[in-house]
DUF4436 domain-containing protein
Amino acid sequence: MTITRQRKLLFSTAAFLLIAAIVSGLSAIAVIGRKKSQRSQEYTVESGDLDDPDVTVWLQPKSVDVLGGTIKYVAEFNLSTAVSSKIYENSFYDSPAVALNVSIGSETFVFKANQPMMQQTGSAPLLGDYNFYPFDNFTGIITASAISGPRGQPVKLSLVVGGIPNGFRIEYTPLVFAEEAIVLAEISRNPTVITFASLIMIIMWFLALASVTFAGCLHMFEKKVEGAYLAFTIALLFAMPGVRNSMPSAPPIGCLADQMVLVWVMVILAFCVLQYFIRMIINLAPVAEKDSAY
């Protein structure tokens, strides 16, 4: 079959447009991701004593550990002149005049009198089920409170939470209970993660359906099964877990996506391999020769 000049030009144009579309899509994703990253630093909510707090906690979530059920954060502290030490007034970090304990999530940070309150890292509890990946949702509970002095007197505190970890979408809701500041974080996967994960699952299904269609056509049209067909299908079978793990921020194997895609895809490919083996074994059987006529 000869390909005419017009068809070659058509195929070349289609290939160029496809490559251009892919490059443009990836560039658009990169630009949008950079803008979202910049805007995430400006998205903050405030909870607690907003009028005249003695302690202001600036908290930025850095990552979401769905397996461990925690939100990893970095916290900074600012003190009002009423509770700050006069000894280190020109220091980069504020220092409390008396001992100060600040509790954030599951962590408690103890600062001695006149000790610089440097940045701290910690974690807050996360509620949710990652088995519904990539459509899973979580609720983070970020609490903050502070006490000072040997008697543990409550200190007026303001909690400011801002920032969105990569790969997630977060909506903050501030709450106030007595001497404690609380921010609820409703967390879900961002559209980019959902789109890429869904595309990978669709591709896995199409590869399995193409393999079973090819195996069926070989059987229907009584074509010989070559070793290359068997090798390719076996390679595709064992490559599927790796393709599945390429989904962004994918949890361990066993979630709902695996029950809907990976398990069935591997079963289909395994049946294709089995069918190839049966055909090849049958072809190896000797053909019965007819008795020659005398």
